[in-house]
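Predict the assembly for these two chains.
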Amino acid sequence: MSTLPESYLEYPRRREGYDHDLYQWSNMHQRPPVRWPQGSVAVWLCVSLEWFPILPAGPFTAPGHMVTPYPDYRHYTARDYGNRVGAWRFLEAFAKAGAKASFATNAAIAERYPELVAAVIEGGHEVIAHSTDMNGTIDSTLGAEAEAALVSKAMERIETASGVRPTGWLSIARQQSFATTDILKGQGLTYCCDWVNDELPWRFANGLINLPLNHELSDRQIVTVQQKSADSWAESMGDAFDWLTREAAASGGGRMLPIHLTPYIMGLPYRIAALEGLLDHLAQRPEAWFARGDEIVAAWEAQT
Amino acid sequence: MQEGAGDPGLYAYHPYNARRKIVWPGGKSVAVWVAPNLEYYEIDPPAHPKRKSWPRPHPDVVGFSHRDHSNRVSHWRMAEVMSRHGFPGSVSLSVALCQHHPEVVADAAARGWEFFSHGIYNTRYSYEMTEEQERAIIEDSIATVREATGQTIRGWLAPALTHTPRTLDLIAEYGLDYTCDLYHDDQVQEVKVKTGRLASIPYSLEVNDHYGFFVYNMSGREYAETLVRQFERLATEGEASGTVMCIPLHAYLIGQPHRIGPFEEALEHIAKDGRAWIARAGEIVDAWREQVG
């Protein structure tokens, strides 16, 4: 009856450290304290700018992609609402709070909506590379050669359309293959945001930096997946900030609060006030340092 | 268990209103135990015919790294909050964590926590194991925890809750005292086994943080409120019955910055109430066994 081979009880990578060689283990609470240029908690606003082709393709279907049989006008347009309206609400809210943010941007967004990306850059925000479009997913079924071509094409298209070459990369759904970190390093990128295992930046074995963009704190997870209200999301962000300020004070080391935002989710008329209220609250807290991803990485890198 | 029968024959039916009262040490009405799951999930585990490890092709970056958060960040956050309010842990341990991250296991041991086995890895499933294979993971668990901590494990929570029809008989044969795999009661109960004796201690799926956040989609504050309600009811009923409340945790969930603050308030509430006997799993099973024989 058993169909389990004896090898199922063999553990060739049962050893000290991880069962992979991508990066080394480290306890955040025992690292030398990191200090930010101001405040004790770096608040990292990261917005995803996503264009979903109405015809899904790629190794897997991105979260938020088309749902109904073709042509799915409902989801195509509801997602594009974020790029036409929601993202502009974000830009205004960030300006009002004096916050600089990161915008993880599909190459297709830079090409299709140059006014939006120009406003992002004009506002002092950072452009993070976020693949080609929402069909540009990566996983181990893609193959390293096709993956390298995808990353290279995305970087080239973003640079050509926006005039800036990003130093950071966010994969769609944070999904990588075993080859991704080397491919990103090969493209000259400084950091990626995909691994959610930590609350401070850390370095892969190949030198690439990971800036953890906590998916648990994203509007997608809390509002769309867990179906909480915008007020509940803002309350959770406030609770997280309060905890991190206390931990920073007790440990003497800086902490980081990543707030991952999606224009078609938090940029809706009935939700945007929750974001504005949170930003207003954080802007009044002396512990908060609103920072772009590249600024956090640079501050951390200078101390390690 | 009775393999192949509709009733697996795990235990006798005992109506809740017709039992002898269990009194916990100090005259407390409810025994409260906290069960942190200290786990290791492999990034590229072998395939099992009955269950897929990760939803995405390996590496499932979010799945793996979310759980890795426990072993880099949130274990210490969770453990500090527990220690601050006087709650020891009874650890559901992927025993291979003793090899991968001995620092986490050592921290739990230094806090006086008890260890029981949760299998070798949470990515190796027991379904379809032969008796010989299942004996191997039990013997591995006993030897590994003994070598890492000096403790002899007394309990079992099946890896990823995967069982065989032999699991309960085998762990009883090896002298383990309790299982956390049965969810039929709010009191410790006797389990029918071939040899020896085995107690079922209430663990909990319903107030498990995983259920709270990913089945019932609670916010951190809603989960904390749920724990308080669970406690209030069991503490009140326990005046007549002697109940058990378990708080099963995963650091990568409860130790997230937006959840840990409300959770600490719930622990503080329970600790200050006065009706809770805050104990380890083995102590609860022993106190029950002394009274029921």
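The radius of gyration of chain A is 20 Å. The beta strands of chain A are 41-49, 102-105, 126-129, 168-169, 191-192, 202-203, 209-210, 255-261, 288-290.
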